[in-house]
Design goal:
Layout: H1 6-14, E1 21-25, H2 32-46, E2 54-58, H3 70-80, E3 87-92, H4 100-107, E4 113-118, H5 122-125, E5 137-141, H6 147-151, H7 158-168, H8 172-176, H9 180-203, H10 208-220, H11 228-237, H12 245-257, E6 261-268, E7 273-283, H13 286-292, H14 300-314, E8 318-329, E9 335-348, E10 351-358, H15 364-375, E11 382-387, E12 394-395, E13 400-404, H16 405-410
Parallel strand pairs: 1-4, 1-5, 2-3, 3-4, 6-8, 10-11, 11-13
Antiparallel strand pairs: 6-7, 8-9, 9-10, 12-13
Helix pairs in contact: 1-2, 7-13, 9-13, 11-12
Length: 417
């Protein structure tokens, strides 16, 4: 079954021959190898590249073990470059290559060579891997399947697809499994045996139970404002743990570096400044989040918010949580101010969107509640409410657009409706 990852394939195409090492990053099992060795290689062949000019090596394969030696590999690569035409070097599991940073930097000096790499352990997954190449690395970050990609291989309608996506997420292999039990077992095992093991081994973590507890706390708090101090307090009061605040902060950074979670900071819209804590944490794959909690705590409003956040990130936006202060007079005549939240502020260059996530708008009170924070923003950028309800896209007299989650996720240009 072919899953077309057009967004990421185009990013590789746009970076061809830019003189940099193209580094495909992302969480484990998100489709990095598939993108490079299947989709990108197919593109090269279909656009005139000779197969002898595409040098692909998967370092985790037994037959390629000898090429993990950097000197042996470089001799081999040079032996294959026999003319001045363009050559494409595709390396998978490159962290298994000894001194891989030096090898990749050496390859940059060959003028007709274009280099693409991916890797799967937590060292390579780390968000700061680009610094290894001293400004000569160009990152393409791949996410698990977005809902549109998911529906391209789903056998059912979009409503059934949404129910499964909210439950099991978008890891490609899980999306192609036939039974719920297969998906549950796969996601549960993957988190415990792969993601956790990578982090524990890389950082020599001894407080394994505390790390597991932290992940569960973050999973339970998806879509809620929190911070390391609050989490540390939770450990002390509920879990009777003496884990320090610094350790909590450190463990959160480990999870961010492995692309398991990401954070959205709070931004004061009127004051035009970041507020700091508290903030929100979201899981890069909602299925893994659910697996951590045994597929309990399935509050669809929080899961939908997480999915919207991920979709905005996939589309290339920087995403913050917005705050707006609303001032009013009380019945006693006193001036009062109330801080309202905007779920997301999505920024990309000169573009900005204010977005609210609402599972449903059952009555006028709920509608006004969702619009109140948006009405507190006085600039001209677009304001949107995304609901699960099946509705036609509409725009009210205040310029606020309301659309269904299906229209938002299934159309790349939905923010322009």
């Amino acid at each position: 079954m072919i899953i077309r990852r057009e967004r990421y394939l185009q990013k590789l195409i746009d970076r061809m021959h830019n003189g940099m090492i193209k580094i495909v990053t992302g969480m484990r099992r998100s489709g990095k190898s598939y993108l490079l060795f299947r989709l990108f290689k197919k593109y090269l062949l279909s656009h005139g590249s000779d197969k002898n000019h595409i040098i692909s090596i998967a370092f985790d394969r037994r037959e390629n073990k000898k090429y993990r030696n950097p000197d042996t590999l470089l001799v081999y690569i040079h032996s294959l470059i026999v003319d001045n035409k363009n050559y494409y070097i595709l390396f998978d599991e490159v962290q298994m290559l000894d001194d891989f940073e030096e090898v990749l930097n050496s390859l940059l000096y060959i003028p007709n060579v274009d280099v693409y790499v991916t890797g799967s352990n937590s060292r390579f997954l780390s968000k700061d891997i680009i610094t290894e190449f001293r400004g000569r690395g160009d990152e393409v970050h791949i996410y698990p399947l977005g809902f549109k990609e998911y529906m391209s291989v789903y056998k059912g309608d979009k409503y059934q697809g949404w129910a499964d996506y909210v439950m099991y997420g978008g890891l490609p292999l899980a999306a192609t499994m036939k039974t719920d039990m297969q998906k549950i077992e796969y996601l549960t095992r993957l988190f415990d045996e792969t993601y956790m093991r990578d982090i524990i081994d890389r950082y020599n973590i001894e407080k394994i139970q505390e790390m597991n507890d932290l992940i569960n706390v973050l999973a339970s708090a998806t879509g809620s404002l929190t911070n390391p101090s609050n989490i540390s307090a939770t450990f002390k009061s509920r879990l009777k743990s003496d884990i320090s605040l610094n350790t909590v902060r450190q463990y959160i950074e480990y999870l961010k570096d492995a692309f398991i979670i990401s954070e959205a900071n709070r931004y004061d819209v009127k004051g035009r400044k970041y507020i700091g804590t508290p903030l929100k944490y979201y899981f890069e794959d909602i299925g893994l989040r659910n697996a951590r909690l045994g597929f309990r705590q399935m509050e669809e409003n929080h899961l939908m918010e997480n999915i919207i956040y991920n979709e905005l990130r996939m589309r290339g936006y920087r995403v913050d949580v917005g705050t707006v202060v609303k001032r009013s007079k009380s019945t006693a005549g006193r001036h009062e101010k109330k801080q309202l939240e905007i779920d997301f502020i999505a920024n990309a260059g000169s573009k900005r969107y204010y977005i609210q996530s609402a599972l449903a708008l059952p009555d006028a009170e709920k509608i006004w509640q969702e619009k109140a924070s948006l009405l507190g923003v006085k600039d001209s950028f677009k304001k949107i409410i995304v609901v699960k309800d099946i509705i036609n896209v509409k725009r009210d007299e205040y310029g606020i657009t309301t659309m269904s989650i299906y229209d938002f996720l299934l159309n790349e240009n939905s923010l322009e409706f």
